[in-house]
Input
Amino acid sequence: MITIVIAEDHQSLIDGIKLLLETEDDISVIGEANDGEMLLEIVKNKQPQVVITDIRMPKCDGISATRKIKKQFPNTKVIAFSMFDQNEAVAQMKEAGASGYIMKNSSLKKVLEAIRAVAKGQTFFDDAIGAKDNLTKEQIILSTREKEILRLIGEGKTSQEIADQLFIGKSTVDTHRKNILKKMNISGKTDLIRFAVERKYDF
Output
C-alpha cells in the first residue's frame, strides 16, 4: 500500500484528489495539510511514502517544505503539484529533492502514474514540462533589476507603483516586464502575476 499525504491550501483540490484516489486499492491517503508547517508536522508523525505538495502555500512554501522533508525523511518521495510549468519552479523543486512534478490540470491517469513511479524510486515529470526538466537555476538569468521588479509584481504592485518605488519611469518598468515575460516564456500579464507570486527568489 502506497501511503500519501496531500498538501494544498485549497481544500477543494485536496478533496478532489482524495475522491480520485479512493477507488485505488494500492493507494491510501493518510493525511492532508493546508499549509507547509502542517505538512511538516504530519510527515513527522505519519512518515508517508509519498507527499504531493503545492509549491505556493502559507507559513512554509512547498520548496522549503520539500527541502526539510528530504533532509529529515530521505525515503519519503515528494511530488510537486503546481499550476505552473515554468523552468525556475521545476528547477527549484528538483534542487529541493522532489522526485516528480505534475500540473494541477493533469489527468487522473497521470497523477496515478506519478505516484506509482516515485513510490518505486523513479522520477516523474509532466510531459507538459518537456525539456524544462533539464534546465538548472543558473540557466535562467534575470538581472538584479528584473528580480526586484518581479518581486514587487508578486507583492501586487502595478507598473506605476513599482516605478514610483524604484524612482524609474513606468515605461522602463514595462520594458523590464516584457523582458521577464520573454525569459520566463510566459504569455501574458495574468500568468506573470501568478508566476511572480509563486516564484521564490533567494535574494
